[in-house]
Amino acid sequence: MSLALVFAIAGLVGFGVHLITARSLSRIVLGFALLGHAAVLALLASGGPAGDPPLADRATSAEMANPLPQALALTAIVISFGLTLFLLALARRQHELTGDDLVEDDLEDRAVSALADAEAAETP
Amino acid sequence: MSTETLIGLLVALPIAAAGLTLALRKHARQRDIVTLGALGAETALAGVLLSRTISDGTTAVRLGGWSPDLGIVLIADLFASLVLIVAIATILVVEVFALGQRRTPWAADPELAGPLLLVLTSGVALSMLTGDLFTLFVAFELILVASYVLLTHRGEAAQVRSGMSYVVMNLFASALFLIGVAVVYRSTGTVNMALLAERLPNLDEPVRVGIGLWFLVVFGTKAAAFPLFSWLPDSYPTAPTTVTAVFAGLLTKVGVYVLVRFHTLTDMEALQPVILIVAGATMLVGVAGALAQNDVKRILSFHIVSQIGYMLMGLGLFSVAGIAGAVIFFVHHIPVKTVLFLTGGLIEEETGTSRLSDNGGLAVRRPVLAVLFAIPALSLAGLPPFSGFVAKFALIDAGIDASSIPIVVVALLVSALTLLSMVKIWMAVFWGSPPGGPAAPVTEPRRRLLVGATGIGVAATLVIASLAGPLWDLSERAATELLEPTEYINEVLGTVTP
After folding, report:
1. B353 touching A, CB under 8 A?
2. A86-100, B133-147, B296-310: the lowest-pLDDT one
3. How far apart are CA B163 and CA B161, in angstroms?
4. What is the CATH number of the domain that holds A55?
5. Confidence class of residue B497 from pLDDT cuts 50, 70 and 90?
6. Percent of chain B clearing pLDDT 70 (strictly above)
7. Is the ipTM reported for this complex over the cut 0.95?
8. B191 touches chain A (CB under 8 A)
9. Interface touch A103/B168, C-beta < 8 Å
10. Which of B150, B156, B179, B191 to mutate to test the interface with A (most CBs of A within 10 A)?
11. Which chain B residue lies closest to A25 (C-alpha atoms)?
């Protein structure tokens, strides 16, 4: 496995995680896309060295690239493509509702912690 | 019908029915008949599968006749069929409840909820029956895609807000899952779990433990284990009642299920201390979070987290008794948790809110509802003679046998705190005086169906409690099979058993 591939995967995961921790959903979508690419690259890399297309009669099995991880990668690409679209739809709905696409705090959680603060203030 | 066909049908039937109900979505009656019929048939199939597995043992199916290192293998052992029948029957009860809840403000949109519930059912069946890691990933995505849409399909502000953190968290876990699959394939040359059971133990210790930890994080996120649980109490309470009930009963449990499956098959006993610490922390954080809440659904959501800790405790003990305890905990927990959320929904239908401070005096107005809440609530806390007692007793007994005293102490403490928070709901909702303001339900639900469905669920938990003896024998058998997976491996690889 080429070292460049390893660094590419590491870089994609790094940038992807950085973007996913952002508040804006459009950044999260991009981060998720990068992470998806990292996963697909990792799957490809797991199949060993590159080779000829795995078609019967065109190459001997020793010369072929391993087709199994490629099939897995293809499935993963389709799934992450669909989910990226769903995330974008969610971002659009959030934009309709609030005018931005920020992931907001859990209101009920804030209410509970405000309650705890109020109780702490009451007891001297 | 051969057992092989049966296993295939369990996955294919709901997804085919989902397509049909989507085509029929404008014809309410036909759509409901197909949904109910498919779920009923699925329950029957799962029942037949369980009885066959009890008498004939494990059965594996190679889809398309491919050899196990290339193709997809489905396999039904005792653990899978036992959890599957409970899960599917629970979904059926929730669908009946959903029929009664139509046209009320808390109902899911029936045009979407029916088909999506069926897709989810198929995903649950596939994730329990699959024999390889990548099909497991696909099954997870099937469940998650259905759950994303079920959670957010009404497009309300609260649902979109909490749906975002739910979706992002799960997508992140899915990406980690894929990278984990790549690492496993690179180091062993297979993603088939039976082959992994043979090849993973031969790897270098650091690689093996690394893979175990990696999948602990991936499945732990799905299972809402500490410290990866915060998405759950945020998102679940905002969904329509029936959706929350299904999620509560099933989604996190699928996470723990595969954790148990993967870590026992690949013999990850080295992770025992880590899993036990995670289990204890999950129990404590969940129950402590529940104590602070002021909403029935949110309290119950935090309890999902704390109960996950118990199942992890069973796995962490890595003994036959411990894993058998986890298995019986699955059987008890799935219906109990779902029924509790259904009663939460009934409270909401009755008074217009599930907030504790806006409720009160319901025991006088609706005594039946009070009983329907009390039985699963006491069961959740683990009081005899209910099903929770059997499950918790088994786990604590196993903990004492393994002389893991700290986890036993935590488990007992958390049980007491669970009871405390159930009492808190009881005092606020069922006792006291009704709140001042007018609390009229907006529309009249079909109450008989609602109460009937919940009643069947409660009755099922009582049946589980009364069948504790035979169930314990089955759980012990399932646990022995999990820890000594020779039959599983032979069945998948097709080697003849001597």
Report:
1. no
2. A86-100
3. 5
4. 1.10.287
5. very low
6. 96
7. no
8. yes
9. yes
10. B179
11. B164
Contact B328, B471 (CB under 8 A): yes
How do the residues of chain A divide into helix, strand and coil, expressed in percent and rounded to 5? 70, 5, 25
**B207: distance to nearest CA of chain A, Å?**
15
Closest to A86 measured CA to CA, from B145, B234, B161:
B145
Residue B444 has pLDDT above 70, yes or no: no
Among chain B residues, CA nearest to A96: B157
> pLDDT tens-digit profile of B401-417?
988 899 999 999 999 99
Q: What is the pLDDT of residue A106?
A: 67
Domain that holds residue A28: 3-122
What is the C-alpha separation between B349 and B381, in angstroms, rounded? 25
- The answer to whether the CB atoms of B183 and A46 lie below 8 A apart is yes
What is the spatial distance between Cα B69 and Cα B194, in angstroms, rounded to a whole number?
9
Query: Least CA distance to B294: which residue of chain A?
Result: A112
Q: Is B175 in Cβ contact with A86 (below 8 Å)?
A: no
Would you tell me how many other CB atoms lie within 10 Å of the CB of residue B281? 17
Lowest mean pLDDT among A60-64, B194-198, B225-229, B295-299: A60-64
Question: Is residue A78's pLDDT more than 60?
Answer: yes
Using omega within 30 degrees of 0 as the cis cutoff, is the peptide bond preceding B227 cis? yes
- Give the percent of chain A with pLDDT over 90: 32
How deeply is B41 buried, as exposed, middle or buried, from its count of CB atoms within 10 A (0-12, 13-18, 19+)? middle
How many domains does the structure of chain A reveal?
A: 1
Cβ B179–A76 below 8 Å, yes or no? Answer: no
pLDDT confidence of residue B498:
39
Q: What is the residue-averaged pLDDT of chain B?
A: 89
Q: What is the DSSP string of B35-54?
A: HHHHHHHHHHHHHHHHHHHH
Residue type, A95: H
Q: Which residues of A touch B295 (CB under 8 A)?
A: 108
Q: What is the dihedral of CA A50, A54, A59, A61, to 10 degrees?
A: 80
Q: Which residues of B touch A28 (CB under 8 A)?
A: 168
Find the closest chain B residue to A37 by CA distance.
B175
Half-sphere exposure of residue B103: CA atoms within 13 angstroms, side-chain side: 8
Q: Is the pLDDT of residue A16 over 90?
A: yes
Residue from A81, A108, A119 whose CB has the most chain B CBs within 10 Å, to mutate: A108
